[in-house]
Amino acid sequence: MEGNIENLSIAGYECTLYLPPKYYINDVSYPVVYINGEDNIQEIMGDLESHFGVDCSAFIAISVMVEEWNENFTPWTAPPLTKKSGSFKGGAASYLNFLADTIKPFIDEHYKTRPEPSNTALIGYSLGGLTALYGLYTISAFGKIGSMSGSLWYDGWIEFMDSHMPANANSRVYMSLGRSEEHSRNQRMAKVGNCTRKAALILEKQLEFKENLILEWNDGGHFSDLPNRFKKALLWLMP
Length: 239
Known about the structure:
Layout: E1 4-10, E2 13-19, E3 32-36, H1 41-46, E4 60-64, H2 69-72, E5 77-78, E6 88-89, H3 92-110, E7 120-125, H4 127-138, E8 144-148, H5 157-163, E9 172-178, H6 192-206, E10 213-218, H7 226-237
Parallel strand pairs: 3-4, 3-7, 7-8, 8-9, 9-10
Antiparallel strand pairs: 1-2, 2-4, 5-6
């Protein structure tokens, strides 16, 4: 990998920053991709560099780590999935506001960014993908959204989408799901296939341009081939 990986702390949040090749030797400003809670940013970006300038724009990426996904990446409270798992605490609104009001301004001030929403993406996987999609409705700073294997089975989520409108109707939205995910033994999680289909239909009506939405189906289950699923999302979001 030719780009640089840097670790930094922003107001108590540990972050991993990726800077594209030649960042320090040119005067170019870059789009920025914010990633919810992933610690494999080097693996995600490694295969993407060969696409820069060909079928993908070079961009800065920053992964924001959280201590508890069940708190930071859930839009409202909900019961636990199993007797052994913790409850969902509904702290996504606070996390997204902190991301937009503190972390993004820090990155825009200290790095060469293109700060407008059309050049700012928010992506995530699983509950992180749910939170990215929640950000579509609650935060106007992000004009590109990626929800890979998003936990759209979440209690009340489809009803929320159906009763709200995106903060930016011209946003670009990527969604994906593994074909085996809707065969979960957990009855709530097994709803993810139908919920993802319904979410796509709702977004088709809400977004200004239908071509700004894609739902992609991947082979495998929830944990299959994560880096490649991120890669496909980013190639579509950052053309």
